[in-house]
Amino acid sequence: MNPFALPPIIAFALLLMLSLAVIFQDARENRNRLLFALCLGMALANGASGMLHLSSNEAQAAFWNKWPYFFGVLSFIIEIEYILQISDRNERLKENLAGIPIAAHRWFIYACITSCLLVLVFTDLLIAPPTYHSPTGWEHTYGPLFIPYISFNIYLLVCPLFILYKGIKTTSNLIEKRIRKITFAAFFGFDLYGFLFGIVLPFFGLQVHSFYSIGPIYLCFLMTYGLMRMQWETINDLKNGLEEKVASRTQALKAANQRLYEAQAQISKYIDPNVTEKIFKGEFTAELSHQRKKLTLFFSDIKDFTQFTDASDPEDVARLLNEYLGEMARIVRKWGGTIPQFTGDSIYAIFGAPDTKGVREDALACLNMAMEMQQRMTLLREKWWNQGVQFPFQIRCGIHSGMANVGNYGSEGFMEYSAIGLNTNLASRLEQACEPGEIYISHATWALVKESIPCKEVGTIEVKGFHYPIQTYRVLQNEIEIDKQK
């Protein structure tokens, strides 16, 4: 085997693998496709050069003689396109080299290359028939147009370097600047190497043109490294940017959730938390609607509270009322009740809406709440007495279980969640009929809780709005009364 054929054959194999690596990385990217074509063109040029050296006769040598230059000249077109692609094509085409727009230089180069290809294929003016030399084997011989062709090569190599130089100077993107610098170094080194091994050393009679194949390898490997590094750095930047965006969005989401939580907490001070939670979960819509449900309804007020307000300073009334309502509201929420509204010292609570634990469980929760309210009222009364308030604060509670219409009432612009109906009125009437410090319940409620909470029959009472007597029971809160009841 001719050893002078080895460098171009090795270059062919390396450049072919490099071209495949580039295209397989991302065939959709235009830069990858151009670099693939450039590496493939260089590979074919070196492969043809190797085959020329391996030719065993003149016919084979004549066949392979012009192919290296054919692929090499075609590669110049791809080089120009690739360099424009990585250097902001539209901006570079507007700039001038020696007073002439790059766009004009580009078309002039393509016209010259086309002419070279035609001369190369159809005449021997550029590349003459090969001759055999020992020990290198078959070699190119050159026609009268080869010297002008070499001169044209100098111009052809200056133009891409100028485009890259302007691309480096005009970009502020560090990744783009880096790939242009690497490509500039690749072309400058390739040009210098080609000038040295293709012109200078052969001029002094040194047979080194076979090692010219190292130049294309250097060029393509460095350009591929630049492209892949740019893509890796771009991906890394995107990754870092994505992480920053995720962190920023996460922080913004936390802040939004915090604001939402704070808003919910503030709104819950005006609207019952059970209703507020449903609204924020999207389970309630702001529309006028209602439904029939089995509820346990509760009313309470402070006996003769109007007399206390008439005889007291407004500041003292507000302070005691706020403390009282705050304590009672906490107890209502503890047992799962919903407060549609406060009216002065009166408390209205619903059990069974918007959520229910079951009709019996709702009734039991309501009675347990009422008993805890009475216990808490005893402690508040003692506390206020020690603060100098002599008024005998006592609350009355009325409870009834039955069907009611529950939902949003009011107008499209302002509404409240409440329950209305005859059974709601009955719970209110029981509260008005109740003795101070006691809890009155209807027969319907008693039937639900009688197995768990001791009650004493009060008898029937006449209440406003009802044309029949109402069977009433009193919840026993005193241990002595409970023992007697047993």
UniProtKB/TrEMBL annotation:
<feature type="transmembrane region" description="Helical">
    <location>
        <begin position="210"/>
        <end position="228"/>
    </location>
</feature>
<dbReference type="InterPro" id="IPR001054">
    <property type="entry name" value="A/G_cyclase"/>
</dbReference>
<feature type="transmembrane region" description="Helical">
    <location>
        <begin position="35"/>
        <end position="55"/>
    </location>
</feature>
<dbReference type="InterPro" id="IPR029787">
    <property type="entry name" value="Nucleotide_cyclase"/>
</dbReference>
<keyword id="KW-0812">Transmembrane</keyword>
<keyword id="KW-1133">Transmembrane helix</keyword>
<dbReference type="GO" id="GO:0035556">
    <property type="term" value="P:intracellular signal transduction"/>
</dbReference>
<feature type="transmembrane region" description="Helical">
    <location>
        <begin position="107"/>
        <end position="126"/>
    </location>
</feature>
<feature type="transmembrane region" description="Helical">
    <location>
        <begin position="184"/>
        <end position="204"/>
    </location>
</feature>
<feature type="transmembrane region" description="Helical">
    <location>
        <begin position="6"/>
        <end position="23"/>
    </location>
</feature>
<dbReference type="GO" id="GO:0006171">
    <property type="term" value="P:cAMP biosynthetic process"/>
</dbReference>
<dbReference type="Pfam" id="PF00211">
    <property type="entry name" value="Guanylate_cyc"/>
</dbReference>
<dbReference type="Pfam" id="PF16927">
    <property type="entry name" value="HisKA_7TM"/>
</dbReference>
<dbReference type="InterPro" id="IPR050697">
    <property type="entry name" value="Adenylyl/Guanylyl_Cyclase_3/4"/>
</dbReference>
<dbReference type="InterPro" id="IPR031621">
    <property type="entry name" value="HisKA_7TM"/>
</dbReference>
<protein>
    <recommendedName>
        <fullName>Guanylate cyclase domain-containing protein</fullName>
    </recommendedName>
</protein>
<dbReference type="GO" id="GO:0004016">
    <property type="term" value="F:adenylate cyclase activity"/>
</dbReference>
<keyword id="KW-0472">Membrane</keyword>
<feature type="transmembrane region" description="Helical">
    <location>
        <begin position="67"/>
        <end position="86"/>
    </location>
</feature>
<feature type="domain" description="Guanylate cyclase">
    <location>
        <begin position="296"/>
        <end position="431"/>
    </location>
</feature>
<feature type="transmembrane region" description="Helical">
    <location>
        <begin position="146"/>
        <end position="164"/>
    </location>
</feature>
